[in-house]
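Hi Prof. W.,

I finally got the Crp/Fnr family transcriptional regulator prediction working! I wasn't sure whether to trim anything, so I left the full sequence exactly as given:
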Amino acid sequence: MVTVYESTYNWESYLHYGKRQFTRRKEIIYSQGSTGEGFYYLHKGLVRIITETAAGKERTLNIVLPNQLLGVQVLDQKTHFTTAIAVKDSVLFHFSCLEFKNLITLHPEIFKLFSRTVIHKMRILLDDINLNALTSEQKIALLLHTVCDEFKSYEIPLYQQDIANCTGLTRITVYKVLKQWQDNGIIKIQDRKHFILKPDFLRNLVK
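And this is what came out:
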């Protein structure tokens, strides 16, 4: 199954072509139905990508981690079909359509990298049905395991409400799962921080 998390791409040497912006926790970066003017690179923080169904329900499609892109589907300058919300205070770089054209001219290799990102996002949407089949434990395990890998640390920089927002679960459900894991020695909760004690448990849970 294709994971909801994107592969990490190295954009560091191209960031000076973008416009740096700071986004606070819970702030909307772009909204579903708004006109897109370019894409974003997430330098620091965490972003949740959601969509609103025809029934008016919110649905989480993707969690964007540092060194990843978001909003790439609107380079044709049509409207966004998703909403991006900062889960934590975040630093992003915005690349306008014109800036991206100039970037491709100067660095043709970027087009291949960008194309892979777009294809991957389409595969994420196709795998949404599989994602919905995961249990609450599996959804939380997938998030925590992926964040561990990305931040190269067993300390999870997320509060319970952040985990609930990212997984689409209620805070009560998240609390119950984490409490059970803490009682079983899988994680440790200290000063509202979460530390993974048995990463292999999470890895095996989402295989």
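The chain has two domains: 12-131, 134-205. Does that look reasonable to you?

Thanks,
D.
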